[in-house]
Amino acid sequence: MVFMVELWVARHGQTEYNVRGIVQGIVDSQLTSSGVSDAMALGRGLAEAGINFDAAYSSNLHRAVETANLALTAGRQRLQVHKWFGLREQSFGMFEGRSEAQRAAAMIELTKSTDRFGVPDFTVDQVAELSHIVNLHHGVAGTENVAAIQRRFNDTAGIIAQRAAATNQQNVLLVSHGAVIWLWLASLGMPMNSASIGNAAVAHVSYDRGEFRLRTYNDRSYVLAGAEQYGNVALG
């Protein structure tokens, strides 16, 4: 049995909604041409770094599934992508498909009387929590608070890692989404003032006998390495 499992957790490639500034949680949009290029560069970069995957998982949202498949194909790694609900993005409820500016305005309106956060430059965890609170205030069900998101992702990653350890799988690819990846990594010790997760950026997390250890995060070096001889990549 392999006890140490290496999880390589990547955010999906750039999407049309990312470019247009539209809130994208459980709603989907297509990868842009840059998003496709980044996904392929990611796969090449990981392969060139000698990371050969034994299993691959993604959120069941199309942008994550496509990113995973493109990366594996470009890296010449023939694996089935297992689509898991537990890896999907946070639901932003009433803000899904609306502009980022509309969501920001609602959060500013909610917080200005309490001055809880002071300025409208919210961190990722604040956006996640405030989105949940605003939805509750408007009677919209089905959203998660930060603790629930972290628990869901951690439980899912734990099941995947346990299965990998039990079947001698050492390197596992997970493709997911910006907010949920950030929140999970924060629970593993990533600084709370860390930048948002870039498109196709990678976090390396080790799993050993029930414990996760964060190695690296928000790493775009694999994309850049894989794109060196194949043209430009998106900026994040």
From TrEMBL:
Entries under CDD domains matching the protein: HP_PGM_like
At which positions is substrate bound?
R11, H12, G13, Q14, T15, E16, Y17, N18, R63
Pfam families assigned: His_Phos_1
**Mind telling me which InterPro entries this protein's record contains?**
His_Pase_superF_clade-1 (IPR013078), His_PPase_superfam (IPR029033), PG/BPGM_mutase_AS (IPR001345), Phosphoglycerate_Mutase (IPR051695)
Task: Answer whether the UniProt record assigns the keyword Hydrolase to this protein.
Answer: yes
| Active-site annotation | H12, E89
Superkingdom in the source lineage: Bacteria
GO BP, sorted A to Z:
negative regulation of glycolytic process; regulation of pentose-phosphate shunt
Q: Which GO cellular component does the record give, naming just one?
A: cytosol
Q: Which GO terms describe its molecular function?
A: fructose-2,6-bisphosphate 2-phosphatase activity
What does the UniProt keyword field contain? Hydrolase
Name it: Phosphoglycerate mutase
| Gene source species | Lacticaseibacillus pantheris DSM 15945 = JCM 12539 = NBRC 106106
